[in-house]
UniProtKB/TrEMBL annotation:
This is FAD-binding oxidoreductase. The keyword Phosphoprotein does not apply. Pfam families: FAD_binding_4 (PF01565). One of its GO terms (biological process) is lactate catabolic process. Residues 44-217 form the FAD-binding PCMH-type domain. One of its GO terms (molecular function) is D-lactate dehydrogenase (cytochrome) activity.
Amino acid sequence: MTDNETLQQLCADLDGLEMSTEDRALQRYSKDFSWFSPVLVEQLRGKQAELVVKPASEEEVKRVAAACSRHRIPLTLRGSGTGNYGQSTPLHGGVLMDMSGLNRILWIKDGVARVQAGARLVDIDKAAREHGWELRLMPSTYRLATAGGFFCGGFGGVGSITYGSIGDPGNVLGVRALSMAEQPEAEELRGAEARDLYHAYGVNGLITELEFALAPALDWRENLLSFPDFMQAVRFCQALGSTCGTMKKLLTLLADPLPQMCGLEDRIPAGHTAVVAIVNRPGMDALHELREKFGGQLVEEQSHAEVFGTTKSMIEHSWNHTTLHIFRKHKDITYLQSGFRPWENVEKVEQMHHHFGEEVMLHLEFLRADGAVTCSGLQVIRYTSEERLNDIIQFHRDNGVFVSNPHTYILEDGGKLTVDPGQLAMKRRLDPQGLLNPGKMRTWDEEAAA
């Protein structure tokens, strides 16, 4: 923690910037959606910043970085706080920098959008549509989520059925990042170098701008379908996801009893599996052909454009928003994040479904991974203990189902279970003092202690 004299000197250095040391503000800005995890709730209890600052320009970001470097004070970045793993919770106090003031859309042309890190995704998408384009990818939290927060703390979302994850080559073309130094320098990073900052929780660079590749704006139709048989619903999603001639924006499956738990009980009968499918208007014929083949019923259809940006959109029942709606009504649950390999995803889904039953309720998001259609799980779990949760995770891993553990704030433990060499090299390059969001990259801490 920072001594009072040093904190006062820091505030003097940042005079003129919007900032606060008020306890309510410190508590609010130091939290994200990590309350999804009962494990993280305990691990992050009492962790908060000592100063919140909200820069309005890159020059002000440089002032904050320079002052923190000069005084050796930790600096943690925050977008809108919609992450789930404590990405923006400071573990060692210091300064929390709210990037939402850098919210300009700098330009849109030739299928590319250049934006500041704090620009909200809903605003980027709406601006792109004025030029005939739209965002390729956005999380279900798109109404709040920022460009930088999505890139540094997110994975995929709406659009992943066609474009994969935000970290896949070609989706984010470049970033502008500042070094953490007494005289911060800006670097334009393209391609693979830019991706070294992807999903790194802001531990290895201060991103101020990003370039997103866009997609042609289409006339999308949102569809809610009901299937009496779970595996037929799974096969429907796999078949629709694999069709080449139908453009798709979202393909979500909610196994019984999840529709009854997340606000769809008035539309999906008990015992049925729900599917949310957003396809382009010309793709509706193919959707209905497959729906009939696999025994599904159309419950509702609506124009995506008419409900986009509102709670009426079926996006509300996809990705982490499904979990959010369930948590509001059911306090005894938590969740997982898993990945199924494309050549066996249907079989592995069936195995997990039969093995766990309603202890691990299957919420699947169909997406493209390495060019193939597969699915990712956001399973809803009836939580009993951390020990049982770890057993469930291990059973998935032992049976060939990848688990990106959402119950840890450590980068290596959450995903690949090993350090990303590119992320580590970028931290050495842009944050040699190790002041950015310390405590989240175990390998860096081990090197520093050696």
